[in-house]
Every structure is written in C-alpha cells, then in structure tokens.
Amino acid sequence: MNARTQVEAFPLVPGYQPRPAVPAASSPDFIARMAANDAAAAPKRHEIYHAVHKGLRAAMSDAVVRLGRVDLDSITHRAETLAAIADLLQLCREHLEHENNFLHTAMERVVPGSSCTCADDHRHHVKAIDALTSRLDEAAAADPLGRERAFKVLYRLLATFVAENFAHMEIEESANTELLWQHYSDAELLAIEHQIHAHIKPERMMTWLRWILPNVTRQQRAAMMRGMQAGMPPELFAGVLDMVKPHLSAFERAALVVDLA
Ligand SMILES: [Fe+2]
C-alpha cells in the first residue's frame, strides 16, 4: 500500500450534501431594477432584506475567517472560536424563523406557492445547521490526534453553508423583494419589519445590531442610529453606541459622532 492510499478520504457528511449550484440571481434584470429603485426621480422602495442580510453576510464571513485562523493548541482560543460559530448558527436559526413566519406568510397571502423555493432552501438550511452543530460538538470534544481534522471538516462544511446562503440571499433580495413590492406598500412592509423586531427578544436584539450596524454604509448606519437615538431611552441608546464603537474604524467612529450630533 503506498502512502497515498493510506490517506483517509475526506468524509462526506450524511444528510449534508451541497445542493447543486443555483444561478446567483433568479431575476436576470435585477441590476436594472436596483438602478431604477435608486434613481433620484423615483420614490425609493423599502428593501426589507437588505440591512439584515448585510449583517448576516458579515457574521458568516467573520465566522469562516475565524475558524480558518483558529489556534488548535489553545483551549481558550478553540472555545472562543467554536462559541462564535455557535452564535452564528443561532442567528441563522432565528433569521430563518423570522423569514418563514413573517415574509413567507406575507408572500403566500398574495401569491400562493410563491415562497416554496425559498421555504425548501430553508428546510435544507435547518438540516445543515443541525449537521454543523454536531460537527461543532465533535470538534470541541476531539482529542489532540483528531482535532486538526475535526476543525478542518467543520471549516469546509461551514464555508459550503455560507456559499449556499449567499446565493439564497440574492434570490430573496431580487425575486422575493420584487414580489413583495408588487403586492405591498412600503408602509405595509415597514409594518411587517416592525413585527419582526417586536418578535426578537430584547437580549438577542443587541447581537443583531452588533452585526448589522457596523456592516452597513455610513449613511445607512447614520439613518438607523438617528432613528434609535430619537426613539430609545438615552441610557439604552448609550448601550448600543458602546456596543457598536469597538466594531468601527477610527474614521467610522469620527463620522458617527458627526452624524449623531
Ligand atoms: Fe432566507
């Protein structure tokens, strides 16, 4: 037996096979439609998925990078890294629930069957999150001999999950947004968004804000934070500000001071 045949094949994960690649966007003219929505002359429509997906994309990218850089010999760093992955999976579970309960419900109300493709993706994502959770537990429990492999398996599965989610989110931001715009006014979409916010437990809201606020444009951040400044008790807003600042660059912090003055 030569050295090559002694190498164990990279394990396939039962119940977690990457789905066939899907087109990045189901709506071929989505860039044109985005341009139309951004045109100064048009009343700009509310993009209900946009900010939260920016936060999720940032959280997912951060998790993959952190896992790739883990110090396998440090029990503390391993634990911190796995906790960050567990946090991401929790965010993903919550996000799926928000979309199923509120956005898919709104879509089905006006066009029965319109949420089927994304609902199917979500069922696959739930299985993927369960599989990743098991692999995460295995990585945490792995002995020194199996540790490198356990973390590598987790890393590759997480990267695949993130890739699937990026493609999925683009379909939501193009096709689903278009359908929602056809059937709901911005006031109605904002009402749905407020229902989602009301559904988020206060202790989880800070985690969502931690990922969304630093990872949107300066202008989006300023608009969101001015709204919070106006609508929140000052001590609560101070808490949000303290939370977000460490995740901003010096330039972004200075800009935020100007924007909130
Ligand atoms: Fe989704």
UniProtKB/TrEMBL annotation:
<protein>
    <recommendedName>
        <fullName>Hemerythrin-like domain-containing protein</fullName>
    </recommendedName>
</protein>
